[in-house]
């Protein structure tokens, strides 16, 4: 199908051919010349009209193109303005979050560091925040000396069980002056990782209130465990500056060691409940720390219940290890009860499934805390287990 311009061109050509043909047949030479002149004038006029139309169309196209370009530039400037506003708002929020956050880094960086330090949560992370002083303003707390942090950290890293929990010192840049909100922020950032957080308050420059908050130690789901230590009186003032400093250092060392023991107990809970690892910290304590050993044992007895329920520890083994814990802490009655429970379980089960070392350990405990009849039962059990073990080793 011909375009409108092409059709009009063919029509004009046809008309001119007809006129020329007529001129050659009927007109005189003068008429022919006059007619040719008119044809040229008409052709020039038509050309001028066509040029004007073409220019008009070109101008319209340029105007439309300029309008489109202008709209594009306006839209582009508007989009850039919106992006700039959004970037500025996001940056302002990041700046506010960093300024108000207790972290010394962004929340994402903190999470990455804790994941790396704990091997993706295979052991708990230890975070220590400077203690909050209620007599100081915000600047005094944030920029002042970070009390007790050094003592707690040193007590932990110098302990024999420091590898059980990954220390992340330096992640907390200020005291938790917004206590509940700051702890909630930490839990949100590290919600699926096992964390032990040490923080506290200093009241009127006289009393210290240490607090330990932990989550994901036994169960996931961000369930928290909070230990509020009793208030500790700071050493009284002394005219002798050296005595004052020595008393303060002694106080901080004792606070650090007590905190390290509690952290160690939570670490034992974590490794026992999740991996079935037998606890050992209570055996490292010196003889003059009998009360601390007994307190730890009571907590570990409960941890065994969780480990047995979660099948991290086999039932008989768990009961015997509970009996050993109680014997070591001089809880004779409790040790006997756990040992008899294990003995009954062994007597009512297939003796071939019982290990000789377990039967011998059971006999050792009952020898110390049981009566002669109970010791005799344990001896018969050990003989039976040892006999079957020997027969099995001989292939009989």
Quick one: overall form? Answer: elongated
Radius of gyration (Å): 45 Å
Helix count equals: 13
Low-confidence sequence ranges: 1-11
The proportion of strand residues reads 5-15%
Instruction: Provide the structure class.
Output: alpha/beta
Largest sheet: 7 strands, mixed
Overall pLDDT:
83
**Total beta-strand segments:** 7
Give the helices and strands as they follow along the chain.
HHHEEHHEHEEEEHHHHHHH
Distance between the termini: 105 Å
Helical content band? 55-70%
What would you note in describing this structure?
It is a single chain. The chain is α/β, with parallel strands linked by helices and 396 residues long. It is built from 13 helices and 7 strands. The chain has helices at 4-26, 29-100, 107-117, 138-143, 149-157, 179-189, 241-275, 281-284, 290-309, 315-328, 332-347, 356-369, 372-393, and strands spanning 125-128, 132-133, 166-167, 195-203, 207-215, 224-228, 232-233. Strands 1, 2, 3, 4, 5, 6 and 7 form a 7-stranded mixed β-sheet that branches. Helix 5 (149-157) crosses helix 7, helix 7 packs parallel to helix 9 (290-309) and helix 11 (332-347) packs antiparallel against helix 12. It is elongated. The relative contact order is 0.06.
């Amino acid at each position: 199908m011909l375009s409108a311009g092409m059709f009009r061109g063919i029509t004009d050509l046809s008309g001119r051919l007809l006129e020329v043909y007529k001129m050659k047949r009927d007109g005189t030479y003068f008429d022919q010349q006059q007619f040719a002149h008119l044809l040229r004038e008409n052709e020039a006029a038509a050309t001028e009209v066509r040029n004007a139309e073409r220019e008009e169309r070109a101008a319209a196209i340029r105007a439309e193109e300029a309008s489109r370009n202008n709209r594009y530039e306006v839209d582009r400037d508007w989009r850039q303005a919106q992006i700039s506003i959004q970037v500025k708002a996001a940056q302002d929020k990041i700046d506010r979050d960093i300024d108000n956050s207790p972290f010394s880094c962004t929340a994402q960086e903190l999470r990455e560091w804790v994941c790396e330090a704990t091997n993706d949560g295979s052991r708990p992370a230890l975070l220590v925040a400077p203690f909050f002083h209620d007599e100081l303003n915000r600047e005094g707390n944030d920029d002042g000396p970070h009390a007790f942090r050094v003592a707690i950290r040193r007590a932990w890293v110098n302990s024999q069980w420091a590898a059980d929990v990954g220390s992340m010192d330096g992640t907390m840049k200020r005291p938790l002056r917004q206590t509940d909100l700051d702890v909630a922020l930490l839990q949100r950032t590290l919600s699926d990782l096992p964390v032990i957080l040490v923080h506290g308050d200093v009241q009127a420059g006289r009393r210290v209130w240490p607090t330990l908050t932990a989550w994901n130690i036994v169960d996931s789901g961000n369930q928290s465990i909070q230990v509020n230590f009793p208030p500790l009186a700071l050493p009284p003032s002394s005219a002798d500056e050296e005595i004052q400093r020595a008393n303060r250092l002694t106080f901080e060392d004792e606070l650090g060691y007590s905190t390290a023991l509690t952290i160690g107990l939570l670490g034992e809970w974590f490794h026992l409940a999740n991996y079935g690892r037998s606890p050992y910290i209570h055996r490292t304590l010196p003889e003059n720390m009998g009360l601390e050993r007994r307190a730890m044992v009571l907590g570990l007895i409960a941890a065994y219940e969780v480990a047995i329920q979660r099948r991290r520890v086999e039932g008989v083994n768990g009961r015997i290890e509970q009996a050993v814990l109680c014997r070591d802490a001089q809880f004779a009655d409790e040790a006997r009860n756990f040992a008899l429970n294990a003995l009954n379980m062994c007597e009512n089960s297939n003796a071939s499934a019982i290990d000789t070392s377990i039967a011998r350990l059971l006999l050792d405990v009952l020898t110390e805390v049981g009566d002669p009849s109970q010791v005799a039962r344990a001896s018969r059990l050990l003989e039976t287990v040892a006999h079957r073990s020997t027969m099995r080793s001989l292939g009989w």
